[in-house]
Structure prediction request, 230 residues.
Amino acid sequence: PLYITLTNILVPKICEFINRFEPHSTESNRNVSLYVKVAAFRWFNSGICLSMIWPFIQTISEEDGNEDRETLIQSVYNIMFAEMFIIPLLKMLDIVGNIRKHILAPRAHDQAHMNSYFCGGKFELAERYSDATKVLFVALFYSSIMPSSLFLGAIALMIHYWSGKFCLLRIWRSAPDIGFHLAHVSRNYFFPTILIVHITMSAFFWSGYPYDNVCESDDGNYQYCNQDML
Prediction:
């Protein structure tokens, strides 16, 4: 989860760097391009990647003697709690902004240069949208085997709202007006995609229950069978 959290923070910076080399006629189009890149990575990194890494029989639980091994569900719990606390806390701490204000600004050569360190952090609406859809994606992706992810997702979104509001009013600088195009793309394309993935993965997870690769044979005995549809 720590690796996933760090990459979810660092990769959007790389996407912003890539966006500089793309021709965009409006700020709205630039944000849509950034939104697609960041959301695609965060969805895969936080949701799809976990289901690919963990063995099929460790989806729910696996006991080794008296010791319980970590499972896919426990990893999802860790991801959701990171979304609830670690990421909002890092945004509110504004580590880079404090370095600029308290270390770099006093060492500036002139007043104009010093004032530039107090203009606030950069605000990207595309990144905020990708943060929200990432939480929704993970919550719905695993909701069939972990219904509590819906409640954790709702709490995470509420914390994101209040921490984002604080940062918007106290930390980030003003952003240019980009209109409603980003919301239109999110509502018409991203949300339906999340619902389709939710339905597909629910069918997959339900088909594999109880994730032990054991099936009853015709003679009443039990034998190995591959319950993993993938």
Remarks:
- The first helix runs from residue 2 to 19.
- The chain is about 65% helix and 5% strand.
- Helices lie at 2-19, 27-53, 72-93, 95-104, 111-115, 125-141, 148-170, 181-208.
- The longest strand covers residues 214-216.
